[in-house]
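Re: the 151-residue chain
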Amino acid sequence: MSKVKQVIVVIKEYADKYRGKMMAQVCHASLGSLLKMFQKEKCEFVSGGAFEPGQPHFRYSVEFNEGSCLDEWLNGIFTKVVLYVETEAELLELVKKLEDETIFPYPIPHALITDSGLTVFHEQPTITCLGIGPWNSDEIDKVTKDLKVLK
């Protein structure tokens, strides 16, 4: 197994009840967590392409060392694992652990995903899942080791 992975943690009830919606939410969590490793910068307008005149646009960029977590993940097999919790409170507890400086003296990229509520959640913004990493598997396991794989 790879020493670098990305973990997505979902709320099981939503995964069971809204399978298609949660597939999209897992994609949001994966990309959202990955993009936490990128720098976002506002750019000057360039005519043509997909840019609308007069609208700001942005560039995402990332630098990483050979052999780093990001290098191994991007140039490896993109290991992902989907785990679950039963409640939103459990998901928020994972976020607290990821941000606890006594556990991790450095930031582990993560993204908490809130659905806007336009479809299945009936106009109620709803926290659905959490993306973690890509990062060192042993470090992620400090927070997720007791969770079960979603089947």
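The two ends are 19 Å apart (CA to CA).
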